[in-house]
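subagent[fold] <- orchestrator: predict structure for attached chain, return tokens only, no commentary.
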Amino acid sequence: MRENKPVEVGVIVLNPDGLIIVRGGGDIATGVVQKFHRCGFKLLVLETGKPTAIRRSVSVCEAVYTGRATVEDICCVLISDISEMNECYDDGNIPLLVDPVGECIKQLKPLAVIDAIIAKRNSGIYMGMAPITIGLGPGFTAGVDVNAVIETKRGHDLGRLILTGSALPDTSIPGEVCGISKERVIHAPASGEVRHIHKIGDVVNNGEIICEIGRNPVSAPFKGLLRGLIHEGLYVPVGMKIADIDPRLDVDWQTISDKARCLGGATLEAYFFLRNFFLPHK
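subagent[fold] -> orchestrator:
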């Protein structure tokens, strides 16, 4: 039986009960957070000061704006300092800290760092940042940047663990739903501040204005359910993704998506695979 105590592997000391840090709090990252939280891990989510998640109803990063965000059975609470983490754990919540570059990581010495920002590029994670490092999607190379990469492209390989090499490159084309692909994602027609006309969960008709960017109206390209809409008041550059419309009018926009659940499970698998590699059973 494995003893529940730190084990030396080379010059690194691994604690089986160590902290897991997740960089990013968007909808995909939230799927990762839920899986680890349900399995009893202590987590810390790191975010930017102005998160730009679209599917905000299922993204714990909303805590940056509201102080706390509840998605299904998990609650994320904004903290201003790592000294507040234990209070969150005592309340059964997950702390979220605004720390986009991960300055706290060296101090906290987590067992694992997971980059779930889905930026399609490496935004600062590296092997050695923690004993276990995992990156989701393109932008990482397993064995170079991180210990493992998770494939995020829909299809046969979705959720596959990559231990050598990289995920498939980003095509910038959303997956097809009811015969509609790139039209599902709406981009800012101009630079400016976002003002909502509709809210997430609304059904909008073809040509109906869903929001304004500055003085520029943004219209729905087809009838559908507004599944995602960037936070109101943000200043966005031209071309930035700002909304997501689903042609399925009955789609569930209030719970974690099938893709996020799949990738959350794959990340949990990667963690245990790598931990077992570092901490073999005796």
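orchestrator: received. Logging for downstream: The domain at 182-246 is CATH 2.40.50.100 (OB fold (Dihydrolipoamide Acetyltransferase, E2P)). The first strand starts at residue 7 and ends at 9.
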